[in-house]
Sequence to fold (79 residues):
Amino acid sequence: MKDKTTLDNLPLDKSAVISSIECKDCLINRIYDMGILKDTVITPLYRSPFGDPTAYLVKNAVIALRNKDSKYITVTPII
Fold:
């Protein structure tokens, strides 16, 4: 079984599949609206100079997500 990690700990350019999203109801709708859903492939592309936020590639779109929000997303890295 592959090791799971949170999205904020995923290295740049390392693709992963979203395993679960566990956050407050007010944040979950925002995350879903950005296309971040279970079983979706996501790749961190860039981090800002101070490390927050991070730009992610999701379904051919680049979105920015704060680290405090991405820690609620569990991913399984793709080998």
